[in-house]
């Protein structure tokens, strides 16, 4: 999915001195440069890890001027942060099945599908590892999850409106409870989650929400 529309420009660097990496949505040649660089950055993270994310090498592989990459992103952490911005923007929208159980199950299965995808799963592991040693990557990862949880929180607010769960239920907490055991399985246990894990996590979160655990 392409980046959001923006005024077309052929400049190598659309940022002002005050603009943080990843906050500009360029068009034209700049958008193509960003797409190429982020593709290479994602491939590098997935196959070699954050330590291998060298800006000069990324520029070479993306066939982009090294000066452009250094000027636009500046550090590997900023490049990883922009990659997470792009991933958040292009992620699938939340499900709307008409029931809390159905919505949370769809969310959980999407998490499992992502974490077990050969490229995406490796990419997330690399970004999680990067967040432990790089402040820019950590901040970006936190923003990524805030965006995704905010997207799926509507499943819970809709359930409140339908009377499925108590008023005042913390929607963000319910959604986080769905994905938490799935990430735990991958990161802490070292076992890729499967669909049965997804269904169990979704069912447990829905039952707890109905019981008023997060009300």
UniProtKB/TrEMBL annotation:
Which stretches are labeled DNA-binding?
A: 54-73
Residues forming the HTH tetR-type domain are 31-91
Listed PROSITE patterns: HTH_TETR_2 (PS50977)
Q: Domain of life, per the record? A: Bacteria
Q: Which GO terms describe its molecular function?
A: DNA-binding transcription factor activity; transcription cis-regulatory region binding
Q: Where is this region: Disordered?
A: 1-29
Q: Enumerate the Gene3D superfamilies for this protein.
A: Homeodomain-like, Tetracycline Repressor, domain 2
Q: Which Pfam families match?
A: TetR_C_11, TetR_N
Task: Give the InterPro entries listed for this entry.
Answer: Homeodomain-like_sf, HTH-type_TetR-like_transc_reg, HTH_TetR, Tet_transcr_reg_TetR-rel_C_sf, TetR_C
Compositional bias segments (type: Basic and acidic residues) = 1-16
Entry keywords, A to Z = DNA-binding, Transcription, Transcription regulation
Protein name listed in UniProt: Transcriptional regulator, TetR family
Give the taxonomic lineage as stored in the record. Answer: Bacteria, Bacillati, Actinomycetota, Actinomycetes, Micrococcales
């Amino acid at each position: 999915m392409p980046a959001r529309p923006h005024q077309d420009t052929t400049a190598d660097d659309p940022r002002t001195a005050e603009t943080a990496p990843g906050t500009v949505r360029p068009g034209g040649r700049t958008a193509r440069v960003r797409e190429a660089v982020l593709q290479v950055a994602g491939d590098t993270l997935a196959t070699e890890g954050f330590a291998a994310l060298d800006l000069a090498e990324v520029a070479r592989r993306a066939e982009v001027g090294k000066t452009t990459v250094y000027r636009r992103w500046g550090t590997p952490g900023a490049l990883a942060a922009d990659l997470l911005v792009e991933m958040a923007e292009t992620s699938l929208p939340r499900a709307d099945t008409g029931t809390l159980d159905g919505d949370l199950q769809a969310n959980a299965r999407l998490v499992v599908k992502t974490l077990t995808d050969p490229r995406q799963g490796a990419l997330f592991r690399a970004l999680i590892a990067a967040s432990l040693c790089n402040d820019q990557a950590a901040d970006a990862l936190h923003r990524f999850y805030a965006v995704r949880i905010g997207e799926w929180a509507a499943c819970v607010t809709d359930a409140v409106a339908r009377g499925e769960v108590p008023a005042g239920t913390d929607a963000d907490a319910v959604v986080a409870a769905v994905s938490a055991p799935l990430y735990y399985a991958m990161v802490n246990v070292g076992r890729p989650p499967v669909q049965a894990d997804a269904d169990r996590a979704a069912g447990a979160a829905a039952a707890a929400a109905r019981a008023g655990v997060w009300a």
